Amino acid sequence: MAALVRISSVCHRGVSPLLFRSSSLIRPLAVQKKDRDCPYLISAKIHATPSNYAGSGSKAASLHWTGERILSIVLLGLAPVAYYYPGPAVDYTLAAALTLHGHWGLGQVLTDYVHGDFKIKMANAGLFLLSTVTFAGLCYFNYHDVGICKAVALLWSKRLD
Amino acid sequence: MLLTTVARQGLCLSRSQFGVLYRHVVPMGTTANEEMNKFWAKNTRLNRPVSPHISIYKWSIPMMMSISHRGTGVALSSGISAFALAALVLPESYPYYLDLIHSMTFGPQFLAFSKFALAFPVAYHTFNGIRHLAWDLGKGFKIPEVYRSGYIVVALTVLTSIGLAAM
């Protein structure tokens, strides 16, 4: 009679499926199929803070996510710029973008695999140190040595002896 | 049992089996981060073993590509950090060390292979990164689309790496 259904994502017209997640449903329900084979989900427990509720809680995580995507796009655009207009401006921009992209990326890896308050703090401190040294090293290289763009060009210019 | 659903700006009306009508959803008092920490704190405190998951689940192409995206990302980041560290520590300049390594290379194939080995993770991470950005826009989630975009990423990676190695 009643079917136990476990649903792991919500699909709503006009809303990205990534925004909502429902916990597993452990009560009888029937799912109605609506347009575009997009089932509407019923849940009494929705882990979401809709924008029409005055949110307690900051938007920091959300803004961080958006920042990560914007940085990725910037880095994508930097590649052709670095190829066609190599020079110190691109070198330092590349140093910053690469370091930050890596820092945030590794941060997500740590968030996924490291648990426990102390361990998380230690891991993030270590990451911060690594990223700082990385950026310092790249800037040093840009200033005192040939720079990132030239370094890649030199490496690629090496041919058979 | 019939349930009617109405969607209104992302909220759902629902009726539980007890006939209670939830008009609105109450925002959770805790963040996802806090809940995740609570989960881990409780389970480590109770010393519970982790159920087998990646050791028993059948591997799929999307799974492999996902972990490869992470793997190439970590590898590239480590490489950049190692390079930066070397720049700070080593006494000589980059052209000096480049020529040093070049004089040690074992023939032209080694050179082409090295270029391929460097280009491959960059190309893969870049193309799969674009695939990720498409997902972030909400596109391409249907399973056939996931596989198709995955194959395209792999094909582009191989072609680009070969092309770059030939330059």
UniProtKB/TrEMBL annotation, chain A:
Keywords: Electron transport, Heme, Iron, Membrane, Metal-binding, Mitochondrion, Mitochondrion inner membrane, Transit peptide, Transmembrane, Transmembrane helix, Transport, Tricarboxylic acid cycle. GO terms for biological process: mitochondrial electron transport, succinate to ubiquinone; tricarboxylic acid cycle. Heme b binds at residue 101. It is found in: Mitochondrion inner membrane. The chain crosses the membrane at residues 69-86, 122-143. Pathway: Carbohydrate metabolism; tricarboxylic acid cycle. It is a multi-pass membrane protein. The keyword Zinc does not apply. GO terms for molecular function: heme binding; metal ion binding; ubiquinone binding. Pfam families: CybS. InterPro entries: CybS, SQR/QFR_C/D. GO terms for cellular component: mitochondrial inner membrane. A ubiquinone binds at residue 113. Belongs to the CybS family. Membrane-anchoring subunit of succinate dehydrogenase (SDH) that is involved in complex II of the mitochondrial electron transport chain and is responsible for transferring electrons from succinate to ubiquinone (coenzyme Q). SDH also oxidizes malate to the non-canonical enol form of oxaloacetate, enol-oxaloacetate. Enol-oxaloacetate, which is a potent inhibitor of the succinate dehydrogenase activity, is further isomerized into keto-oxaloacetate. Component of complex II composed of four subunits: the flavoprotein (FP) SDHA, iron-sulfur protein (IP) SDHB, and a cytochrome b560 composed of SDHC and SDHD. This is Succinate dehydrogenase [ubiquinone] cytochrome b small subunit.
From TrEMBL, chain B:
One of its GO terms (cellular component) is mitochondrion. It is a multi-pass membrane protein. Its main location: membrane. PANTHER family: SUCCINATE DEHYDROGENASE CYTOCHROME B560 SUBUNIT, SUCCINATE DEHYDROGENASE CYTOCHROME B560 SUBUNIT, MITOCHONDRIAL. Membrane-anchoring subunit of succinate dehydrogenase (SDH) that is involved in complex II of the mitochondrial electron transport chain and is responsible for transferring electrons from succinate to ubiquinone (coenzyme Q). SDH also oxidizes malate to the non-canonical enol form of oxaloacetate, enol-oxaloacetate. Enol-oxaloacetate, which is a potent inhibitor of the succinate dehydrogenase activity, is further isomerized into keto-oxaloacetate. The chain crosses the membrane at residues 73-90, 110-127, 148-166. Pfam families: Sdh_cyt. It comes from Sinocyclocheilus rhinocerous. Component of complex II composed of four subunits: the flavoprotein (FP) SDHA, iron-sulfur protein (IP) SDHB, and a cytochrome b560 composed of SDHC and SDHD. Pathway: Carbohydrate metabolism; tricarboxylic acid cycle. Keywords: Heme, Iron, Membrane, Metal-binding, Transmembrane, Transmembrane helix. CDD domains: SQR_TypeC_SdhC. GO terms for molecular function: electron transfer activity; metal ion binding. It is found in: Membrane. One of its GO terms (biological process) is tricarboxylic acid cycle. This is Succinate dehydrogenase cytochrome b560 subunit, mitochondrial.
